[in-house]
Structures are given as C-alpha cells and as structure tokens.
Amino acid sequence: MTDTSVPKAADFYKKLPKVELHRHLEGSLRVSTMMEIVRAHNLDVKNTGYLRPLVQIDHQEPYTFENFLAKFGTLRLFYKSPEIIKRLTREAVEDAALDNIRYLELRFTPVALSRAEGFPMAQVVDWVIESVREASAQYGILVRLIASINRHERIAQAQKVLEIALERKDKGIVGVDLAGNEAEFSAEPYQELFSIAQKQGLRVTIHAGEWGGAENVRQAIEDLGAERIGHGIRVLEDPRVVALARERGVAFEVCVTSNHQSGVVDELSEHPIKQMLKEGLNVTINTDDPSISRIDLSNEYQTLTEILGMPIGVLEERVLAAARASFLPGELSRRLAAKISEDFRGILALGE
Ligand code: ADE
Ligand code: ZN
Description:
Helix content is 51%, strand content 14%.
C-alpha cells in the first residue's frame, strides 16, 4: 500500500482520477457568476464580501443544519432565466471536469430551479439536460443526472418531479433522491413515490442518517428501496442497521466537510468514516455542495488522507467503489472502474 506519511502537494490530489456520486447543482454555483448576475439584475448585493456569507459557509456562524440549509434560500434568487440556469449547469460540469472528475452524478432540484421565476418545471429540467449534454461533450466528462425532491416540499410537487424524470429516463436522468430537512420531516409520505420510481427503472438514493438517526437509514433501505444513502454516517448508532446495509451492499455517499459544516460532526478529524470502513460498509467520497462548502473533490481527498489519515490505497479503493456504485449500466460502470484503476496506478507510479 502506498505510503501516506509524506504529505502530498495539493496538485497531487488534482491529478487523481475521480468519481462523484453526490453533488447538488444548486450547491455548485460560482461566486463570480453570482456577482455577474447581481450586477446584470441590479440585485441588492453590494460586493462579493457581502454575498459570500449568504451563499457559502461562513466560519463566523455556528455550524448547524439550519444555517447550512438557509444558503439554498438565497441561492434561489439566482435562477433568473433559462440562459442563467443553463450557464450554472455548464459551469458546474466544467468545474467538475477541471477537478479531474471522470464521472459525475449531478443531482438537481427541479422545484427549486423552477419556482423562483415560475418557470414550468418540465422546461427547467430540459434546460439542465441540454446543458449537461453539451458541457459533458465539451469538457470530456461523463455526467448523469439525479432528480432531487426535498422532504419539506409538498408531495404533489414531488409527484410532478417524478413524472417529468420518468419521461426523461433515456435523456440522462438515472435516479431520484430525497433531500432536505431530515431533522424535521419524515420520509414516510414518499414511500409509494419511490417505489413507483424504482419499478419504472429509476435508481434510488436517499439522504438519511445525516441530520437524523440510524432508523432513517433503515427506513430508506427497507421502506424506500434505497440502493445508496446520502451521508448515512449515523448508521453507526445501530449495529442492526449497519448489518442490514452491509448485507445489502448499500453504498454510502459520505461528504466529510459538509458533515462538519452542517454540525453533524464537531471536528473533521473525528469524522466516523474510518469506523464505517472498519464495519465493512461500502463507503464513497463526495462533496455534497462544493461552492457552499468552499471545497472541491480534490480538497476532500486531501482532507481524508492528511486529516483523517486514510492511506492512498484506501482512497483508491473508495474511488473504485464509487465507480461500481454508480447508476450506470453494469458494463459501463465496470469499464469506468477499470479505467480509473489504470489511471490511478499511472499517477501513483509517477509519484514514487
Ligand atoms: N440538500 C443539499 N445539501 C443537502 C444536505 N447535506 N442534506 C440534505 N439536503 C441537502
Ligand atoms: Zn446532499
């Protein structure tokens, strides 16, 4: 296994081939683009210094899920036109490609993108699909989409999102996700909806065990058919749910920095990812909301090796685990994993 005792330059992590399964479009907006929108639309925002704490984690404020979720409220002010929504999507894909992400599952929230200006939801979804298709070809990155539904939104809206996503299954939408305020809203009302989604060929991932306990992870797996869990770190609170997840091979989309910034773990160095691995859970590494958190996936890989002491060999295994847990068809996912493995070996050989 490769030695990690010598810190690597940030550049080393940039070069590593990457896979990201859990990234929200709405949490991936460039601050520079937001400032351009501010100026073009005469929004009441004086400068970048004023904007940042409204849309990014401010190290002065308490790290709580309420403060974290509040950023999305401000971000909604920027979804002003079809051109802007397409641009934000294109830039999110470009930023992932610049970070050497080879495969990205980008999730987006049709209700949020459409509501602010009253755009028809189906059109908004088509803008995102079109922009992803163009950007992935332009920047040489494979991208698939996941439609996110917020637990705190109305169920009728969720039904509409599902209908629209199902109609676009062959246009790059591969899954559905339940996100939002897990601390105060149960997933139960969404059971039937996710069952329909799955029966009709969409893959299922659920945010659970982040701001709620292990029971939510059990519910996501057993009652909502989740193949993957967004975060899920609080699964460790119940060994029975750990066993369930392990037996079913459920993949965990772990987002270390996000968990710290939204108050789930007090210290980055105490993040339980290593315990999850010890328990034999299928862990993957993700950013969640890179712009809100002021990170990219390279930063996360660096945090894992340098703050959490994860050997590079384990990091590589987790990138391969992400390729295998992707919502791509089996053969494509195997080919992706093989290519990532080969490129990883190449980079490590260069560094030795
Ligand atoms: N939406 C965006 N980020 C999220 C998170 N960390 N948890 C739940 N919903 C989210
Ligand atoms: Zn998330």
